[in-house]
Design goal:
CATH topology of the largest domain: Rossmann fold
Distance between the termini: 15 Å
CATH architecture of the largest domain: 3-Layer(aba) Sandwich
Number of helices: 12
Largest sheet: 7 strands, parallel
Number of strands: 12
């Protein structure tokens, strides 16, 4: 019997201590749990999942002796925290290992957008370079970066990188943001003040489609949107329309509300950069997270 159950987002991680005691069983996903014999499900005391896989009340019903959920990643929008609390199950999110890699990607995407690097690569490869000069890009130095999630670990890491590039920092007028940058009362106000608006917050019902047509209009024809938070933060239809009509200059999206499906209209646009939710997907981050996850599981099980 295995006291630890893990889903495939953690596959590829190395857990030498857990493997030594043969404690972990990997399943392809939550949907496969119902087929596991009841005796094996009753033996599970620790669930290792991810922010993208989550943990539902229905899943908890199948694991009656579960005491600890370890979630690799940032965000609790797919984890039923109320159900965990009602059952007395402890939750340990492991998101602290993702900060630097996500912040790095946010800055890379900002530079790619402003310097038009994807288009420049295509231009050079196509042979067009021999006949013409590539259009000028924009320097980020002196620009204002608005950061939704400014006071969070990732938001602060992005701000630190932006300041090195001589960017000005802005955020929303929240108590936690005092002293961190120029603050604005609404999403639209923040967008209007930003040359680049970066989303670095997890999804929630309150923030669903917080970036709508009115916010995109406020961002303006020279403004750019970078999303390394959650796809649900952005009204996709409104964003596509804004990109098609050049209401904004461009967008770089590591997350989509439709992921892994990419709307055809979005994929066809030259002023958008798409990456497949790779913000924290580095070998270094996986190694750091694995150490924490393993230590938490071993300590809980007294192994």
């Amino acid at each position: 019997m295995h006291p630890i159950l893990a889903f495939p987002a953690l596959a590829g991680m190395v857990f030498p201590g857990l493997e030594a005691v043969e404690a972990v069983r990997f399943l392809p996903g939550p949907e496969a749990l119902a087929a596991v014999p009841e005796a094996e499900r009753q033996a599970v005391r620790v669930l290792m999942t991810s922010a993208s896989r989550g943990c539902t009340a229905a899943l908890l019903d199948l694991l009656p002796n579960l005491g600890l959920v370890i979630s690799q990643g940032v965000g609790l929008d797919k984890i039923d925290v109320a159900a965990l609390t009602a059952r007395g199950i402890r939750l340990r999110p492991v998101g602290e290992t993702q900060t630097e890699d996500v912040a790095d990607l946010a800055m890379v995407l900002t530079q790619m957008l402003c310097r038009r690097l994807v288009l420049a690569d295509t231009f050079a490869r196509s042979g067009a370079w021999a006949a013409a000069r590539f259009d000028l890009g924009d320097s980020i130095h002196g620009m204002t970066m608005g950061i939704a999630g400014l006071s969070g670990r990732i938001g602060q890491a992005i701000a630190a990188r932006a300041r090195v590039s001589s960017m000005q920092i802005a955020g929303l007028n929240r108590a936690s943001n005092q002293g961190l940058g120029v603050l604005h009362d609404t999403w639209a106000d923040l967008a209007a003040a930003s040359d680049v608006l970066v989303l670095a917050v997890p999804g929630s019902d309150d923030l669903h489609h917080g970036i709508d047509a009115s916010v995109l209009s406020a961002l303006g024809p020279k403004g750019r949107l970078v999303n390394v938070g959650r796809g649900s933060l952005v009204d996709t239809d409104a964003l596509i329309a804004a990109l098609e009509h050049q209401t904004i200059a461009g967008a770089a999206l590591d997350v989509l509300e439709t992921e892994p499906q990419v709307p055809a209209r979005l994929a066809a646009l030259p002023n958008v950069i798409l990456t497949p939710h790779i913000g924290a997907q580095t070998w270094g981050q996986r190694a750091r997270a694995a150490k924490i996850i393993e230590a938490e599981a071993l300590a809980y099980l007294n192994l």
